[in-house]
TrEMBL record:
One of its GO terms (molecular function) is kinase activity. Residues 279-476 form the Carbohydrate kinase FGGY C-terminal domain. Residues 19-242 form the Carbohydrate kinase FGGY N-terminal domain. It comes from the Bacteria. This is ATPase. Keywords: Kinase, Transferase. Coiled coil: none annotated. InterPro entries: ATPase_NBD, FGGY_C, FGGY_Carb_Kinase, FGGY_N.
């Protein structure tokens, strides 16, 4: 049935809608969809992480302000477009950046500032736990943050009553339920595929490891309950409704699906939850999610083992740095353009500059860059410094400059993907990509296809992002048929008529990327030296 203005208005009035909220690294977004998975309205709030006392963080005030601002903007768009005020929603879901560390005491007080996935301060803990469990524990995972705090003998540890992720915190705030989706939970502590819960064996090992510390809690006491997609994980409380909607129009009692991480919503938004499918999400960080049909033979520090929102095992290759440095350079070019008296729209700037990469030498002309705003665990860099290097013999022009910065955005990712494909012989039928970089047609796909030597597709829905994927998970809980799997729901209902543009790797581009990655690996000593000898702090000049 064709969607009309009046039918959407009726859907809003009757609560036949689903709301997805996502707290990403640079933007908080609230997005409302109808029963046909079409976007009705959205709102957003721009924010940035802060480096405070050696930790990347967001403060609680910004978290709540951003949540409220995004919802308010979405609500106002509904009122302008459809002349109706939102009083109820069919279902709600919350998503956020995966991993990190949020620890609370019995009163709900946050014990230390939120430590995000971006922190590379837990290498000792991650290494020790990986050896102890014989299972890779990445630096970003919540358990690595907790154990590093134990190693550091931090004073807040005896007071911990609850530990969760950012998505879990917002869900708890709005519902009062200490719950987490299995995909996000798998970034807190290893999951047992058979039980669809935290690994009991590894949990016992961890408790034994810290038994001499005398803490008044065991790990199972402080972790959120694990839920799989399709389950209800709470309802909106009166307090939660007043927090989310400051106008007090939204009524309590709305069901919530399990909160998920941005990796899970990315898999849903690209229909990549079946085995042997995969997706790549590009933003401040970049990560590939490959749904496995067999166990990996070895343990790799470059590869996380997490799950889909419905509990299937996933190999995740996560690089902390991707587009931040590229965006910074494009900002510099914008400044130059404006200084010359030419105002350029952002979309036009990105299109022109990114397309220059298609005119470049296959390897980027011998240029080298590292977009490391923060440390990078895949390459063993503890503290990042954005860096651009060339020799006198490099072919230094705009096309090669742009290709080099696109290549380096995928450099650390390629190192991890090569382990999966070349060492573990993992078969990948398809890769779907999403993120702002792919709004410019062709060029981002070509560079990605060159990096992983696999066809890369971008769907018509690629620009919808994680908030839309979260709204889909919320809708699945509300509208699934009896015994309908998430895979079937996505195939048969959500993506049935969605088209995708596929680009195959170009042989010259692949060879060019292989030459670049050799240069990239060899030059890592330069990046490490830059971090060692160039301070992050600016010296104040005395006047």
């Amino acid at each position: 049935m064709k969607t009309t203005q009046e039918s959407i208005k009726q859907a809003i009035a009757k609560g036949k809608t689903s709301l997805g909220i996502e707290l990403g690294s640079t933007r908080i977004k609230a997005l409302l969809i109808d029963e046909n998975f079409e976007t009705i309205a959205s709102g957003s709030y721009e924010w940035e992480n802060l480096l405070e006392d050696g930790f990347w963080t967001y403060n609680l005030l910004d978290i709540i302000t951003g949540l409220q601002s995004a919802y308010r903007e979405m609500k106002q768009e509904v009122e302008r477009s459809y002349g109706i005020t939102i009083r109820t929603v069919g279902s709600i879901g919350v998503s956020a950046m995966m991993h990190g560390y949020m620890a609370f005491d019995k009163t709900g007080e946050l014990l230390v500032p939120f430590r995000t996935w971006r922190n590379a301060t837990t290498s000792a803990a991650a290494k020790e736990l990986t050896e102890h469990f014989q299972f890779n524990i990445p630096e970003r995972w919540s358990i690595a943050h907790l154990y590093q705090a134990i190693i550091n003998q931090e004073k807040h540890l005896p007071r911990i009553d609850y530990m969760t992720t950012l998505a879990g915190y917002i869900h708890w705030l709005l519902t009062g339920s200490k719950a987490l989706g299995i995909g996000d939970a798998s970034g807190m502590f290893p999951i047992d595929e058979r039980t669809q819960n935290y690994s009991e064996g590894m949990m016992k090992q961890f408790n034994e490891l810290i038994s001499d510390k005398g803490y008044p809690w065991q790990l199972s006491d402080i972790l959120p309950a694990v839920h799989t997609s399709g389950e209800q994980a709470g309802t909106l409380t009166a307090i939660g409704a007043s927090i989310l909607d400051q106008s007090k129009n939204l009524q309590p009692g709305i069901p919530f699906c399990p909160p998920e991480g941005d990796a899970g919503t990315g898999m849903v938004a690209t229909n990549s939850v079946r085995k042997r499918t995969g997706n790549v999400s590009v933003g401040t960080s970049v990560f590939a999610m490959i749904v496995l049909d067999k166990k990996l033979l070895n343990v790799y520090p470059e590869i996380d083992l997490v799950t889909t929102p419905n509990g299937s095992p996933v190999a995740m290759v996560h690089a902390n740095n991707c587009s931040s440095d590229l965006n910074a350079w494009l900002g510099l070019f914008r400044e130059f353009s404006e200084a010359m008296g030419q105002k350029v729209e952002s979309d036009k700037l990105f299109q022109v500059m990114l397309n220059k990469a298609l005119e470049a030498d296959p390897d980027g002309g011998g240029l080298l860059s590292y977009g490391y705003f923060s440390g990078e665990n895949i390459t063993g860099v503890e503290s990042g410094r954005p860096l651009f290097v060339r020799s006198a013999k490099s072919n230094f022009n705009l096309a090669n400059f742009m290709r080099t910065h696109l290549f380096t955005a995928f450099g650390a990712l390629k190192i991890g993907m090569d382990l999966l494909v070349k060492e573990e012989n993992v078969k990948i039928h398809s890769i779907l990509a999403h993120g702002g970089l792919f709004k410019t047609p062709v060029v981002g796909q070509k560079m990605m296809a060159a990096a992983i030597n696999t066809p890369v597709s971008v769907m018509d829905t690629a620009g919808e992002g994680g908030a839309w994927g979260m709204a889909i998970l919320s809708s699945y809980m509300l509208n699934k048929s009896e015994n309908e799997s998430l895979e079937d729901f996505l195939d048969d209902k959500v993506f049935k008529e969605v088209t995708a543009q596929e680009i195959y790797p170009d042989e010259l581009d692949v060879k060019g990327f292989e030459a670049f990655i050799k240069r990239y690996k060899k030059g890592l000593v330069i990046e490490k030296a830059a971090a060692e000898h160039h301070s992050e702090e600016r010296e104040e000049l005395l006047c």
